[in-house]
Amino acid sequence: xxxxxxxxxxxxxxxxxxxxxxxxxxxxxxxxxxxxxxxxxxxxxxxxxxxxxxxxxxxxxxxxxxxxxxxxxxxxxxxxxxxxxxxxxxxxxxxxxxxxxxxxxxxxxxxxxxxxxxxxxxxxxxxxxxxxxxxxxxxxxxxxxxxxxxxxxxxxxxxxxxxxxxxxxxxxxxxxxxxxxxxxxxxxxxxxxxxxxxxxxxx
Length: 203
Hints:
mainly alpha; Arc Repressor Mutant, subunit A; Tetracycline Repressor, domain 2
C-alpha cells in the first residue's frame, strides 16, 4: 500500500502547468538548451515552486517522455487484424498524420530524444515499442502471405509510415517555407499519402 499522499487540486494544477510549460520549452530548445528558469517562467511559477513538484530538469523530461510513448503507440494498437488490411493500414497512416497536426511539440520532443540516442526512453523502445511493432508486423506479414496486400517488408512499411507522417510535425517550418503561405500541409498530405499507400499495398 502506497504511503504517498494524494495531491490537492492546486498541486495537480501546478504540475500540469509545469509539464505544459516544459513541453513547450523542450520542443523549442531541446533538452540541453532548456533551463529550469525558462520552464518556471513559461509556467508562471517560481523556480523553487517548480522544484517542489519536480526534483530536476531530467525528472520533468522523463515524465513527459513516459507519457508520450504511450500516446505514440496508441494509433498502432488500434490496427485490427480482423479488419480489411488496406483500410486498416490506411487508417493508421491517417491517425499518424493527424497526430502530427495535433501533437507537433510532442513529436519534436520524441524525435529529439531518439536523435540523441534515447538516453531516457531507450529501455521502452526495445521492450514496449518493439513488442507492439513485432506484433503488428506479424499481422501485416500474414496479410501479405494471404494475398490480401502486396508483398512488403512489414517493419519497413511501418518505418515509412512514421517518416512520411511525422515529417509534417518535425519539419513543419521547412514544409511551410517550401509550400508557401495559405497552404495546409497536413490536409494536402492526406490525399497524397492515401494514394501512395493504396498503390503500394495493392495485391
